[in-house]
Amino acid sequence: MREVLLLDDEYLVRERLKRAVDWEAYGFRIAGEAENGEDGLALLDQLKVDLAIVDINMPIVDGLEFARLASSRYPGLRMAILTGYGTFDYAQAAIRAGARDYLLKPIDRDEFKALLARMEAELRKESEEQERLRDAIRESESIVRDRWVREWLDGAIPWEAEQFGKYCPTLAGKERYVVLAAAADKEDGCREDGDGAVRDREVVGAVEDAMATAGFRLGTGGDAEGRRTWVVGLDGEGAEEALARICRAALSFLGEEGFSRASVGMSDPFDDWVLAPEAARQASYALAYRTLRGGGRLLRHGELNARPLVTKGMSVRDRMLILLRLGNEAAVAGAIDEWMAEYRAPDASLEQFCLLLGELAAAFSLYASERRLEADGIVPASLQPFELAWSLGSLERIREWLRGQSALLLGRAAGEPRRATSLLAEKAKEYIDREFADPELDLNVIAGAISVNSSYLSRVFKQETGCTVIEYVTLCRMARAKELLERGVRNLSYVSEAVGYSDALYFSKCFKKLYGVPPSRFAGMPN
Questions:
Q1: Residue 400, CA distances (Å) to 189, 397, 406 in order
Q2: CB 52 within 8 A of CB 5
Q3: Over the stretch 354-365, which tens digit does the pLDDT of each residue have?
Q4: Domain ranges in the chain?
């Protein structure tokens, strides 16, 4: 309710004004009354008055003088003057004195109601404008604060005690700190209400609210690149584990209630502000692992336990190129599914996964170039594997994207009639895929199996796939060997024989040439 002050030297006039309308219906209530301007000014010092209804003719301090003094002291005060004089001069004088409106005595009830409606509308509009201004100021302050914290955590600016005290006052004096990075997950099956960006901020905000409610002191770096970053203060034994429990509970609640899910990455703890940028990198890195480990969870940097990086890009690129050149969409999709399945393991490496994506994208681009296909909309020229993994957000989405892009490539290439040589190469490939473990398998055996001259097959296979027949046999054997090693088979003699090699040393040499490490190291065995 807005507060009203009545000023009139006649008691009966004041009483009639009180009873003239239902004040509350217009959003007002009578806060006070006085019979002269001097007492009215005293009441303004005591009360928070929004509207004063003032008679011109009053003793000591009249209405015009009251209006002049009150408007200078209280610029936000609305005033309406009551006068028995209907001349234009009095109306002008009232407006000059600071009144927003005036009424003639005797007062007409309908006119009085209309005046109250106008005053309430003006006051409401002014309040809304003031609130918007306050919001703009708060938002501006928040933007400046978030930008400073973000640039500090990015390592773009040095930590400064004065700025830190200004923008993160609650974090001073803590024993240890961690950095958290959170983002809404990009998975199917979640409720899709309203604007996506707003919904994502609300989901991440629920995690922030849970931490703040539990008493943790936060310094926020705001929202950037689809994620929100916080510096969190830790005090006492068990604070880090308590924070982890709070995050897990908040994330679990979001999933159980059917909201969009979120994931949180947590850095290792630190006690020196110089280490904050590295902690921020750790938090973002841990969060990125949701692509492999799944969303809706807390990912702690110290618990990632990823396998060491093993370079195997050559086999991925070459194999994909071969499959694309043969034009077998089912085989391409099967290879993509096979590679994606490898990274569902709990110790899968994100770096290795991004290398895989880069090699597949390179294979797509090379194939498009070879076939003189328009690659726009299939493989962006500036594709960054890490950004692709982050933007798609899950193995399943990435698998669908890879299969979709390869199908687009093959679909565009399908407009050209398949040559007899392409069909012959595919027939040879299918035979090799079945029989690669035969130690007697060579060019002559393969050519005889498909009833073609060996020299002709050698030339055609190289032309259609980009690799020789024997190179493809080796690729198939090495892929199977790697699969056995990853399943835990440790007997290298058994592995070499299982993939078609009678000499384990020669097998090891071929394996190292393709994958960059000998099979003993790949399997985690001592040399």
A1: 16, 5, 10
A2: yes
A3: 989 988 988 888
A4: 2-127, 161-299, 305-416, 417-526
CA distances to 184, 194, 263, 473 from 226, in Å: 8, 17, 12, 45
Segment 286-326, tens digit of pLDDT: 999 999 998 889 999 999 887 765 555 457 888 888 888 88
Write out residues in the chain with pLDDT < 50, as ranges: 188-194, 313, 526-527
- Confirm if 178 and 266 have CB atoms less than 8 A apart: yes
Quote the DSSP letter at residue 143: H
For 247-285, the DSSP string reads HHHHHHHHHHTTSPPEEEEEPPPBS-GGGHHHHHHHHHH
Strand partners, 23: none
Residue with tokens 């296909």: 373
161-299 against 417-526: fold identical: no
Which pLDDT score is estimated for 189? 44
CATH architecture of 161-299: 2-Layer Sandwich (3.30)
- What does the alpha-carbon distance between residue 231 and residue 219 come to, in Å, rounded to a whole number? 5
For residue 55, the SS3 value is: strand
CA-nearest of 155, 504, 516, 73 to 311 is 516
Pairing of strands 176-184, 262-266: antiparallel
What digits encode the pLDDT tens for the residues 200-216?
777 888 888 889 888 88
pLDDT of 211-240, one tens digit each? Answer: 988 888 877 766 666 688 889 989 888 999
CATH class of 417-526: mainly alpha
CA distance linking residue 430 with residue 420, whole number of Å: 16
Assign a CATH topology to domain 2-127.
Rossmann fold (3.40.50)
